[in-house]
Amino acid sequence: MKALEGVKILDFTHVQSGPTCTQLLAWFGADVIKVERPGAGDATRKQLVDVPNADSLYFTMLNHNKRSITIDTKNPKGKEVLERLIKTCDVLVENFAPGALDRMGFSWERIQELNPRMIMASVKGFGPGKYEDCKVYENVAQCAGGSASTTGFLDGLPMVTGAQIGDTGTGLHLAIGIVTALYHREKSGRGQKVLAPMQDGVLNLCRVKLRDQQRLASGPLKEYSQYGEGIAFGEATPRAGNDSGGGQPGRILKCKGWETDPNAYTYFITQAAAWDKICDLIGEPDWKTAPGYDKPVHRLDKLNKIFNRIEQWTMTKTKFEVMDICNPLDIPVGPILSMKEIMDDEGLRKTGTIVQVDHPERGPYFSVGCPIKLSDSPVEVTRSPLLGEHTSEILTQVLGYSDDEVAQLKEAGATEVVKKAAAE
Ligand code: COA
Question: For an engineered disulfide with 212, which of 122, 168, 237, 349 has Cβ 3.0 to 4.6 Å away?
């Protein structure tokens, strides 16, 4: 039995943030019923299309293990279907623009009336306040949550990161909120509203930068490279380039082949406990005891010199050789891995974090499987549903409509009934 078996999720999500949340819940065993607009569905189905007439990777990689039903929720008959789903399901997850669900006629009050045990979980761009009505995408959240102002180099623009901390990050926050509310419902018998604003989620992931903001009041942030470079600090936490986020100085350093390979680099951390071994490794044994080098605090104004010397050594090795040599010495390093290297990584394939999935329209493709491993609830990744693929079975088996009633719903324009994929 899977951890969340028996939990029914009314998945009213689209694009990335909401779908990552419900995909995770599906991987943990919940029955996730994705409600989509007839004829169109989640807009990502047709965004960044690489295989003509097939659902995009954007969609397929975010919607595994779900069922899809099409309902026009602005059609009166469609609203009735949605009401029945609300009465049947445990959780409604949505990430529409603020107010969209109310405009559809499904306010939190109405949902509670229909099903007092319902948990209603939402992603919005901002929490209550002056920006609460704004539509928000990933990079806006990264900017408003403090990530962009603290990412990049001191002399460059604010920078967004490739990690989707606004969308997938908030999806994770929401999933934790949902599971917590389900646990609470066991005791209270009631559902509740769960809200994960993207700005708040990003800020939560940038917690250490707010820490540094307050430390500035006590003087310069000595572990930042700019301290050693004699550059004054301003009022706000600066961009830290590739400096390590904690008290152990680190940098990205060139490795053998860097001239032609954009990813021939390693991250190298001069953890205090490993200092003596680092000095021996790079051929500077005197630095173990030399005044100005012997204590971590003395080294902070010489980080450029130290890392330049370490880089002379790393440039003689590949990033994997650096890993193989440093790990047995307990020197923390990490190769800069390209997506190509990650996709081919045997270890990640073995653990199911990289999975190959088959799809009737597009054939086999790779995806990121469940990154959280539960020993008693293993995950089997199955393909994303075609638009409306499970409409009939959900209407009849989950909601108890007769075949005639299904035909009437179709007639009324409340739904579309789609045949199963021909290829299967
Ligand atoms: N049947 C009929 N209508 C449907 C429907 C269905 N099955 N599903 C959705 N709709 C309607 C909604 O009722 C809404 O209509 P309305 O504006 O007339 O009330 C509309 O489709 C979709 O709304 P919206 O959410 O505004 O879509 P959008 O494409 O304009 O905006 C976002 C996209 C992501 C910017 C916006 O949804 C948003 O800000 N979401 C919250 C933050 C978020 O999750 N952002 C990250 C996305 S990865």
Answer: 237
